[in-house]
Amino acid sequence: MNTDRIDRLESVLGDAPWDDEDRSAEPPDPIDLVTEVSTMMSVFAAERFERVDAMHREALRELATFRGSSLEIIERSLRLELAAALQMTERAADRLLVTADGLVGRYPAMLASLHAGRTTERHAEVFVELVDTVEAVLRDQVVAVAVELAEAHPLGTFRRLLQKLVATVRAASLEERHREAVAARRVVIEPSEDGMAWLLVHLPAVEAQAVHARITGIAQILRAQDGEERTLDQIRADVVGDLLVDGVVEAHPGVARGIRATVAVTVPALALLSDELAAQSEPATVEGVGPIPIERARELCGTARTWTRILTHPERGTVLSVGRKKYKPPAALRDLVRWRAGRCMSPGCGLPASRCQIDHQTAWEDGGRAELSNLAPLCQGHHTVKHRGGWRVRQVEGGGGAIEWTSPLGRRYVVEPERRVPVFRAA
């Protein structure tokens, strides 16, 4: 490593905890020691990406070495050599080459962030993977914001926010791309081992989300039956087979047969009125899926009762609180809490809010109220951690649903909701 890069590494890391020059500094805690090494790994990852890209470009210049082989053969040979040298799979080597090419050739701002230790190698891989899906003429609208997201959020949240950003930027062409994709829908069966097979269904994401929601709802009811020993995944698989082979399954309890899919569709109200207004609005989205064409959103908002229609415009009668009258929030308030959050409100968790429990940040037994400013969805695992893991959790005052988690070591992490509930004041 040359002198410039050593200086850069030292500037990123600052004084090491073992430096004798500043004995008055607060000694590092165990997390400080881990994050310091992680910062070094980010700096070295950036260095490796640069060297991999340089090697790649050098190999392509030396075409004579490959005796006139096609570009595909050259790339494959290079992947094999890189995989052998680094003791990784060729698939991992290919990902390394693709990421290096993107960071060095197209996204130097992200490479600089990695060099400075402000983000991680995995963030860089996701960045290249998703930003590369954006048409070249639109990428300038994405890159700077995407770098900021990478530096500010854990990997799962970053991926989700970047997917949303990419989808929003590409929304102008979503209608046409969706029509082409729908034309490619199909069902495929792939043999597996030990008498098993994969049944793969390629269909619109909205319907796929609804299918999964329904089979999960049925499976949860069956799992609660006395004597049931199957896992939730096993029951889901059995439910799919039962429904597709037999149709209505009389052996299922009546309450399970009545389960229907519910999917939350969020649509800017004005976008429903005209294409011109739709072009000026945020794209319509489906919880757990992302943006959908406005025509599809209009269709959903005008038909089945099983679609939860949430318009981003004030609607009278929204229940925001029931105070201390009852512990369990009414359905309308639970729906609003889940819609606002979008996901589990623990740091980095991506489980859809529809599959989470509603948590009182200030516990009911401690005087907590059943109101929007004290409720947030948490998955079962993080709900348990919140109550038994030594964390303190509160809603940030004036934060629009943002949750602050304070760790047992005293570190604070703020999780922002996916959406804001509009606040209206008199003129």
Shape annotation: globular
Structural class: alpha+beta
Major beta sheet, specifics? 4 strands, mixed
Q: Report the portion of residues in β strands.
A: 5-15%
How are the SSEs placed, and which strands pair?
Elements: H1 3-13, H2 30-61, H3 71-86, H4 90-105, H5 108-115, H6 121-131, H7 143-152, H8 155-169, H9 174-182, E1 186-191, E2 197-202, H10 205-223, H11 232-246, H12 254-257, E3 263-267, H13 275-279, E4 285-286, E5 290-291, H14 294-301, E6 307-311, H15 331-341, E7 357-360, E8 375-378, H16 380-388, E9 392-395, E10 403-406, E11 412-415
Helix pairs in contact: 2-4, 2-5, 3-4, 4-5, 4-6, 6-7, 6-8, 7-8, 10-11
Structure, described:
The protein has 16 helices and eleven strands. The longest helix has 32 residues, at 30-61. Mean pLDDT is 80; it is low at 15-20 and 310-319. The protein is an alpha+beta fold.
Question: What keyword list fits this structure?
Answer:
427 residues, alpha+beta, globular
Summarize the entry for a quick read.
By secondary structure, this protein is α+β, with helices and mostly antiparallel strands. The chain has helices at 3-13, 30-61, 71-86, 90-105, 108-115, 121-131, 143-152, 155-169, 174-182, 205-223, 232-246, 254-257, 275-279, 294-301, 331-341, 380-388; strands spanning 186-191, 197-202, 263-267, 285-286, 290-291, 307-311, 357-360, 375-378, 392-395, 403-406, 412-415.
